[in-house]
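Retry 2 of 3 after timeout on previous attempt. Resubmitting structure tokens to design endpoint.
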């Protein structure tokens, strides 16, 4: 046998060589940490289906955000669990609601941190859908003004970025308009543009207590089979004024992330969702896979696919691993 001309192994021989030729580098500054905030004090309630994730009160959320900040994580994204729910999700846009309260406290306690506020009705409606219902269906055009109202309330309370995850048509444009009308021209919009109707959201709904009481979200979230439609939604959201576009979930949709990042000239975010987190944690806790290694491999894959920003429940763990490596 002639000596192979191309020997990939030459550059894989030592850790230093591998590091030198590594194409993709995950950084703590790529990560966004989700926080679930609820009323109360000193709350740190484990989410049953998400080991290591907690429902927090404002004070403990501040501790968690400080921890993230110290590890070089630039941003948190807030989800609110309100004191009460109703058909219209009215606690979602109240100025004294849980998310505005948390935003004001975080703004003061960790001024340098980027604060992202998820905008959706599902945590605030008693029926668990992402908008208000009419004849058993989510009423798109009646929901959009409520989302815009929530976005304005969050921006006023200190959010740097509002992130609509509801999947109503026209919400990005309506939110941009409402923010600008209120003089909040500096608030950015990160749109969940390609959000698929996914089985991987299960554990989140456990944490946010937002499982729909009837039906499902397939009438407004995207069909997992559709990549071309994802591009259309991304272009639409950019035309309506989105500053960052998101693909969600991440790992089953790496092809969509690649397509989006090839086409657009704005930052692309990917949300590695609760079920993706839980799969790794469950297998690791059974001793079936190496959890920390699987986590870093998953995150670097999402980055390699083209994501600039990654929302992940593994943010603290990953940032710690990146810091230890240095
Ligand atoms: C709310 C929302 C969901 C997630 C983020 N925002 C749930 C859903 O659409 O049912 C899911 C996040 C996750 O699973 O980690 N609309």
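Retry 2 succeeded. Sequence:
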């Amino acid at each position: 046998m002639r000596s192979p001309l191309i020997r990939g192994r030459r550059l894989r021989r030592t850790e230093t060589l591998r590091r030198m030729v590594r194409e993709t580098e995950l950084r703590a500054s790529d990560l966004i940490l989700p926080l679930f905030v609820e009323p109360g004090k000193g709350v740190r309630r484990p989410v049953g289906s998400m080991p290591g994730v907690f429902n927090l009160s404002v004070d403990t959320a501040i501790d968690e955000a400080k921890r993230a900040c110290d590890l070089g994580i630039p941003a948190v994204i807030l989800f609110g669990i309100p004191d009460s729910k109703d058909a219209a999700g009215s606690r979602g846009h109240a100025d004294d609601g849980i998310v505005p309260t948390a935003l004001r406290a975080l703004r003061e306690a960790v001024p340098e941190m980027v604060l992202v506020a998820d905008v959706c009705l599902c945590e605030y409606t008693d029926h668990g859908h992402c908008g208000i219902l009419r004849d058993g269906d989510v009423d798109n055009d009646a929901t959009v003004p409520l989302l815009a109202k929530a976005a304005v309330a969050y921006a006023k309370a200190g959010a740097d970025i509002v992130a609509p995850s509801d999947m109503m048509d026209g919400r990005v444009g309506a939110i941009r308009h409402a923010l600008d009308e209120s003089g909040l021209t500096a608030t950015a919009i990160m749109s969940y543009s390609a959000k698929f109707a996914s089985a991987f959201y299960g554990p989140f709904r456990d944490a946010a207590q937002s499982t729909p009481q009837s039906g499902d979200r397939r009438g407004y979230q995207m069909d997992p089979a559709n990549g071309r439609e994802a591009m259309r939604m991304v272009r639409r959201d950019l035309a309506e004024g989105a500053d960052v576009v998101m693909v969600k979930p991440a790992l089953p949709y790496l092809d969509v992330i690649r397509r989006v990042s090839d086409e657009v000239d704005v930052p692309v975010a990917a949300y590695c969702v609760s079920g993706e987190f839980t799969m790794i944690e469950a297998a690791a806790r059974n001793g079936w896979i190496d959890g920390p290694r699987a986590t870093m491999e998953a995150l670097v894959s999402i980055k390699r696919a083209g994501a600039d920003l990654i929302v992940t429940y593994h943010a603290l763990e990953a940032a710690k691993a990146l810091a230890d490596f240095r």
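Attempt log closed. Residues 121 and 174 are 15 Å apart (CA to CA).
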